[in-house]
Amino acid sequence: MTGGRKPEAPIRQPAVGTVRRTSPNVTAVQLPDPPKARRRLPVRQILCLLPLVLVAVVAVRHRDVLAEGFAHLGTAEWPWLLAAAGATCLTWVAAACCRQGAVVERLPSARLLATQFAAGAANHLLPTGLGASAVNLRFMTVCGLPLARSSAAIALYLLAESIGRVALLAALLLAFPDALRLSTLLPEGAMAPLVITVIVTVLVVAGVLMLIRRVRTTVVSFLRTALGEARSVHTRASRAFALWGGAFAFPALQAAGLVAVGEALGLDVPPLHMAVAYLAATVAVALVPTPGGIGSVEAALIVALVAAGGPAAVATAVVLAYRIITVWLPILPGALTLGALVRWKVI
Q1: Where located (predicted)?
Q2: Domain limits at 299?
């Protein structure tokens, strides 16, 4: 025996089948039921259905335009209408090319094209440019681009598309100076208030930038990011070609769609003059913040086609039929695509 310590006695196990008896002095305490988990609001499901609700609201508000537009389509020459539909489909391809050209990283092609189709529907439901920009911003951030670079890519796309549209308009006006009767586009005396408004807006923006340091710092930081992104894109020939090729092709295809509808309905205006009218109207209406330009685009296009020499009745029919093809026919499939992309977490 070593150490003088006795071995510990083994712990006795209770006999099989015995039941422990509770002490009569112990009071049982009823534990409260665990709190039920609160049901989370199905935000993603709501976002999937929201585009369809907005489509229904917009369609009801413009039901008279829809009815009249479809009536004009019934009297048109269908080969030209198919050409207009084909040009409209190619605008989404051009937009996808331009979006890809605005970033250095390669974006998934199929999802990028589907996003442009969905962005077109969003653009007709929200003020001009905001819907498409929001959808594409979300798409690029999901693809892994930082928010600052995604925003810079959006700005570069908008700048390139605006330059392409204005450059095409300027080139066509130089080639066909008599394409539009500019005196009919603006009422007499309307130019002076327009110029004053532009000058006041520029002065207000400049004043805000000079007086509010936080705004000035944010704008300068964003401009640095945007300029760096633009330099990076233009160091790669494929990206620069996609950016500027898409920027010029997008408005050209839109104008081609209007020309095809004009030919389908027998508008007595030369095709290139119709293209000038379209570009002039869309440049003018870009400053009007209506959802997808609905209402303002129709009015501007009718005025521009009349200024190009077309009869008012036929010009109205052409514009309504054109908007049916480019806005109302794709808007429901586009909204469904938008909802599907939200559900699949592509955006």
Answers
A1: Cell membrane
A2: 44-343
Residue 291 has phi, psi (to 5 degrees) of -60, 115
Q: Residue by residue, what is the 3-state secondary structure of 140-178?
A: HHHCCCCHHHHHHHHHHHHHHHHHHHHHHHHHHHHHCCC
Encoded tokens for 157: 């796309």
Question: In the chain, which stretches have pLDDT less than 70?
Answer: 1-52, 54-55, 58-59, 62, 65-66, 127-129, 182-191, 194, 287-295
- In this structure, the number of other CB atoms found within 10 A of the CB of residue 23 comes to 7
The total number of structural domains that make up the chain: 1
103 Cβ partners below 8 Å, 6+ apart? 140, 145, 149, 153, 229, 233, 239
- Could you tell me if 332 and 55 are in contact, meaning their C-beta atoms sit under 8 angstroms apart? yes
pLDDT in tens, 222-275: 899 999 999 999 999 999 999 999 999 999 999 999 999 999 999 999 999 999
pLDDT value of residue 95: 97
> Distance (Å, rounded) from C-alpha 152 to C-alpha 161?
14
| The token pair that represents 184 in the structure block | 């009919």
Residue 156 in domain: yes
Q: Of 157, 112, 159, 121, nearest to 139 (Cα)?
A: 112
By CB atoms closer than 10 A (0-12, 13-18, 19+), residue 229 is buried
CA distances from 269 to 27, 91, 276 (A): 97, 23, 11
- The CA distance from 89 to 260, in Å, is 14
CB 301 within 8 A of CB 277: yes
Instruction: Tell me the chain's radius of gyration from C-alpha atoms.
Output: 31
pLDDT at 167: 96
Residue 86 in domain:
yes
Please give the pLDDT value at position 326.
Answer: 93
Per-residue model confidence as pLDDT tens digits over 171-203: 999 999 988 876 656 555 556 776 788 788 889
Alpha-carbon gap, residue 281 to 247, rounded angstroms: 18
Q: Is residue 39 part of a domain?
A: no
